[in-house]
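User: Structure with zinc ion, tokens only please.
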Amino acid sequence: MAVIAAMLFGTRDTMPPEADIAQNTSYTVVIDPAHGGGDWGVNVHGIMEKDINLKAAKLIKLKLEKANAGITVVLTRDNDSFLTDAARAGFANSKKASLFISIHCDYSANPQAEGYKVYYSAGDNIAGPAGREVLDWTRVQLYHIGESMKLAAFISQYMQASLIPESGAGANAEANSAVAGKYRKEQSAALASLEGVDMPAVVVELGNLNNSNDLSYLKDEKTLNTMAYHIKEAISYFLKDKK
Ligand SMILES: [Zn+2]
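Assistant:
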């Protein structure tokens, strides 16, 4: 019955299988809570992006390490401190991490605009000569664009799943708490914060802080947890797929 429902409605069969990677493989993942210190990021009535980014990053770390014995998650900052983009990239590179996710919240010129976005760096915006040895370090992301695109697609796909309330028996309760009204969008862009990151890397904008719906779910521990859960699932799946 569940299979028929999935065929009819195209829900679960568009999803990769539940993914936790094997325990005998070890990976380092870098989660980057963007902004910090005197750099607040978006600030809407005292609700600051830097704080939400840090909260979300800590939730993702907790969930990833709990679910996967083989994954070590390091945060570029675990307190309210300022770091340059270059320092974040250099830190991630020094860890020889398998992937890098920069967590942001957005501000839209149109306050009606809502939803998360996932970005990867656009190769066509970086005019680098061919051959790794002659690239300067800010262009090193060029080598990972294919994998970065894949990671962005996985994160979008898993976050999109939170749109679909699953009523089938045995489904994961945490995964089912819907974050309503969100859309899938992975985009390429010129992303200064991913320059110099020598591994698959994406920027996740969790939502628009000046949109009232987005603001309410980003302030709510429960919905923030749901988003963290889906990002964790996407990371697990990406690493499993890489193996
Ligand atoms: Zn930001």
